[in-house]
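Page 37, top half.
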Amino acid sequence: MSLFNKVKDLLQANVMDMVNKSEDPEKMLNLYVDRAMEEVRNFHIQVNRAVADKLQLEERLEGLTKEIELRATQATLAVQQGKDDLARTALSYKKQAETSRLDYESQLVEQTKAVEDLQDNLRILTEKLEKAKVERNNLVMRQRRAQTMKSANESISGLSTHDPMADIDRMKDRVQRMEAEAKASRTMVSTNTIEDQFADLEKSKANLEVEDELAKLKAELKVGLGK
């Protein structure tokens, strides 16, 4: 499996599944993208080498063309001066250069096609890398958002075992109970005051009877002494 396929698989993974794993999704994404960047850099080096080989073939072809022209000129000059052996040697070199040029021309055609293919592949890989970077950034944001939501849900779940609202409700009930007791005690105070008033009346009545009895007793005693 190529590195770009690994990146593709990772980018298509479910975010929550990644969050629930022990591995750090953001770290993994950065690692895969970094490796993809390294692969693109290495591929770019290969493309540059292929381009350099193509340039080298073109330079050799240019050199062979010049050599062929030179050997032709030399052969002509040798013939003009009646030096057939020298002319044959020049023509032999010219023939060898022509053969080499045909070979290099064939290689140049193949190398040109190879360079074009490599450059196309490099363009595709570069586009995939840029897309992977964008997807990486989007997925990292989704992962962070999912992690935040997960942490928040866990916090809320933890509060369910000791809900502060339950404590507040209990205190509310207690306050309401105290308010009811205070109201009842106020009613009792008012009722006790009335009862006390009646009790005072009864007490006053009893005191009057005692005073009447005392006066009556004194009167009887006074009458007895007068006899």
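Page 37, bottom half:
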Amino acid sequence: MVTAVATLVAVTGCTAEQDKGAAGPGEAKGGGAALAAVGSLTVKGRAPKTGYSRDRFGTAWADTDSNSCDTRDDILKRDLKDVKFTGGTCKVTYGLLDPDPYSGKEITYRRGRSQVDIDHVVALSDAWQKGAKYWDPSKRIALANDPLNLLAVDAPTNRGKGDGDAATWLPPNKAYRCEYVAAQVAVKKKYGLWVTAAEQSAMKKVLAGCPDQKLPTGGNPTRAPERFRAR
């Protein structure tokens, strides 16, 4: 994130009438507490991963907000400092992730090198096992490209996360854990994803240390335009 500091707001539920734009997990608008929102999430067991593939969430980095830039470049523009472009104002070729929210380090982004990933805060595989398996493709495409669920981060740290939820993985940078968990709660609330009992317990444990932490809001509608397809 550009600042990795959040003063955020309550999410209103799983409808297509969410705020549009490139609001991300750390952008602040003020509002309801994340800790209280954890209790509103449905608690169920993890469903089998059977049938999951990235293709179920559409083509990677689809331009679902129709701004003529792909989603990856939108997030790089939002989260990096000192951004430089090639051939207009979409293709990001350089920038600084200062600090990286997951590790706390400063990382230089150069296009073509794998030092910066765009992470799905709620991993797509985790989403699949907690409700997304039963959605229509339009909603899965929306989740995969929603700025609320996307964050530019250190690549090696992110790859250690895999498809972990809050019960199995938290950012090594302890100062960012409240924002991170609040973002996961916001995404799961917005899209109607459930949590496991262990996951809910882990979320409550983190947020108990920051009871005034707010929920992020915004992002894209929860349905992608009809022109996008997924298996």
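Margin note: The first strand starts at residue 81 and ends at 86.
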